[in-house]
Recover the amino acids of this structure.
């Protein structure tokens, strides 16, 4: 056996003999310990997952949403997550009719009513809705993020459209991270969940 190999083996044995790490227990790097501590220190959210039966009109849908918001707040939820296109119902005909009424004014008014309920109940909400963006001149299948103060914190547009989206919406172009009640959050809308990188990106962003 070469002298250099014997010397290296003795050094390894000496290091193992003086190590304070118990046998068969892997060492934890300082980076991993710090990362674990940071993650465990983050606050948690109480989230209510809501499911509603779509109705024929926006007003009926809003009434159902308000009922669920009140119930969620009563049970101690901090955030309520509503279905895709909850304001109109996930139906192309219903969406096109609602967006045609006053160039989408009906949908905007519905969002304002929900925002007021957020303020009343001190409850954040993620609301599925078609959204007309005046900047791009396009309609998106969107999730509107409303804080417990009733202010819109942002919007996440669906990125990977399916056949029931293409007749009325345009795909979004980015995944976003929102701050809800001090906790960083991201939104994945329906078919987008089939693309793992869309979950990985917001994790990397914090």
């Amino acid at each position: 056996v070469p002298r250099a190999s014997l010397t290296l083996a003795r050094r390894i044995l000496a290091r193992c003999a003086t190590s304070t790490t118990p046998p068969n227990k892997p060492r934890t790097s300082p980076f991993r310990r710090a990362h674990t501590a940071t993650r465990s220190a983050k606050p948690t959210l109480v989230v209510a997952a809501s499911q509603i039966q779509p109705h024929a009109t926006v007003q009926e849908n809003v009434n159902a949403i308000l009922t669920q918001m009140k119930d969620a707040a009563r049970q101690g939820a901090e955030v309520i997550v509503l279905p895709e296109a909850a304001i109109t119902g996930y139906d192309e005909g219903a969406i096109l009719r609602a967006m045609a009424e006053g160039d989408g004014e009906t949908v905007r008014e519905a969002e304002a009513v929900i925002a007021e309920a957020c303020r009343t109940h001190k409850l954040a909400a993620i609301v599925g809705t078609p959204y007309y963006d005046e900047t791009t001149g396009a309609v998106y299948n969107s999730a509107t993020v409303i804080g417990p103060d009733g202010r819109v914190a942002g919007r996440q547009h669906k990125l990977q459209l399916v056949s029931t989206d293409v007749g009325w919406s345009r795909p979004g172009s980015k995944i976003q991270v929102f701050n809800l009640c001090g906790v960083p959050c991201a939104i994945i809308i329906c078919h987008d969940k089939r693309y793992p990188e869309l979950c990985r990106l917001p994790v990397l962003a914090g």
